[in-house]
Amino acid sequence: MFNGILKKQDDSVYKDGVIILYGTKTGNAKVISKELKKQLKKLDINPVTMNMKKADTSILEKVSKAFFIVSTHGDGEPPASAKKFFKQLHSNKMSALNHLDFSVCGLGDSSYDEFCEASKTLNKQLLKLGANAIVKRAECDADFGKTAAKWIKKIKNQFESSAESVIEEENISFATNDENLYEGKLVTCEKLSKAENGNYTYHIELSDFNKPISFYPGDLIEIMPSNPLWLVEEIAQKLNAPEFNDELIHRKEICRLSPLTIKAYAWLTNNKEVDTLIIDKERLKNFVDRANFLDLITDYPLDCSAREIIDILPNLTGRQYSIANYPTKSDDSLHLMIKTVRFDYRERKHEGAASVYTNEFLKLGESIQFKYIKSKEYYLPQDISTPLILIGAGTGYAPLRGYLQQWYMQKPSSKAWVIWGEQKHKLSHKYNIELKTLQKKTKLLHVDCVSSRDKDTKTYVQDQIMSNPKQFMKFIKKGASIYVCGSKEMGADVENTIARMLESSNTTLDALKNKNRYITSVY
Q: Across residues 99-115, what is the average pLDDT?
């Protein structure tokens, strides 16, 4: 049995040691790393466990085995906390790692094209540096439990001195960190605006928490919703199995699909039409983007027991929302900006589990449970003299609202420029009124609200940047930090626009990113 024991001090990390490194945004990678450490300690192995943001790649030269757990965000990138480690690993100064045995566990969402891309990048670079992969890289979907458990089991088997010991995956569990679980009451639910499809965006306020909570703009909360009762009843009727209603309401993911769920369905049913769907990548993506579980069992009928079918469904996962305010001594409530998701697809009604739950189902005064996710990488600069450019579209304005409140409360000496895109901006909008009021209080704030549906010519946030090059470059020269929040498409358009604008300057977009002056949160 391998007996390398490490302590957290650098001078006691030796080449016969083991280290677990994780890169995370929401905390799931940390949860897996803790369980891996727990399982290895049962074998008298005490590995160092470390967040990549605190690690230097030189530590890999001092150990013989390293296990990595990393999530994927944006366009296949590692979380912000791991970017420095990734950059060091890809540096020309990086030493060979021929002595190192390793394995990588990736976390992601298979509904995205760049599923677990950061783990692929990490695995490829470690191999390039000469390291030896002793366990095949794992790819965990949003419901990561089963896949992560299998990965941990394979790692434990590498350390077993006898083949007689059988490690069951059932003995591996991922307990939720109760410290990050909260409960609060819905105290405000106010309509903000109406989209062209008829769906409303709401201003939500939670208060009366079961324990003190200290949060900042840039942080997230994850709401665990209940699935719509009408959808559950239609699925139960289709499967002729009403006895599974409670499980479908509270524990199974039915409002959205992942490619992995569809592949499991194809394997279970041996349905050739589903195989054809999977092969056609574009058609599969369109189906995943719009369909729910009812669509799958309706459009591709099967002859299996209800229990077999329900067992392929992943566990219900939470929905994440940016915190939209900066708490004060007089008001410690937590604000959210949530757009109701409701649309027709194949002439069937579809709803988002969390948005309908918070906006329409939950009553004032009722309690809601959520997980608090601290995201220091998305906080405002500590230097309050730093100018800010805040760019968002739709509900991407949520964290920007919090940033603005924090900026103003800190009595800044520098300017802030807000560019907020909506389909239509209305003067009666609560947040529009707030912006106008704040502009009257300080001359340091410049606001541009752009609309993509108000006029014949559509105007987007990137157009507003491009039309004000002098102002943009003035902010950049004074050291401005840029925060971008909204859809991936919007984020890509903004990034391309800014990259072009910087071409004739003495800086680049990559330089801004490396200095943490360009922060994005896209979905």
A: 90
* Domain span(s) for CATH 3.40.50.360 in the chain: 10-168
Every domain of the chain with CATH number 2.40.30.10 lies at 178-225+318-373
Provide CATH code, domain 10-168.
3.40.50.360
- What are the tens digits of pLDDT across the range 495-510? 999 999 999 899 999 9
Name the amino acid, one letter, at 473.
M
Architecture, CATH, for domain 380-522: 3-Layer(aba) Sandwich (3.40)
Q: Where in the chain is the domain with CATH 1.20.990?
A: 229-311
**What single-letter DSSP state applies at residue 189?**
E
Name residue 369's beta-bridge partners: 183
What are the DSSP calls for 369-403, one per residue? EEEEE--GGGSPPS-TTS-EEEEEEGGGHHHHHHH
| Distance of alpha carbon 440 from alpha carbon 460, whole angstroms | 25
* Rounded Cα distance, 319 and 353, in Å: 9
Could you give the residue range(s) of every CATH 3.40.50.80 domain in the chain? 380-522
May I ask the CATH architecture of the domain 229-311? Up-down Bundle (1.20)
Q: 104-113, 147-156, 352-361, 400-409 — which is least confidently predicted?
A: 104-113
Q: Alpha-carbon distance 216 to 100, whole Å?
A: 40
178-225+318-373 — its CATH code? 2.40.30.10
Which residue is listed with tokens 């045995």?
Answer: 101
Among 518, 220, 519, 517, residue whose Cα is nearest residue 398: 220
Give CA–CA dist 290/287, Å, rounded: 5
Query: Which residues, 6+ apart, have CB-to-CB distance to 258 below 8 Å?
Result: 109, 110, 111, 141, 142, 288, 314
pLDDT tens digits, 266-297: 999 888 899 999 999 999 999 999 999 999 99
CB 102 within 8 A of CB 43: no
Cβ-based neighbour number of residue 90 at 10 Å: 14
CB atoms within 10 A of CB 421: 26
Q: Which pLDDT belongs to residue 459?
A: 86
Residue length of the chain:
523
On the question of pLDDT at 180 being above 70, the answer is yes
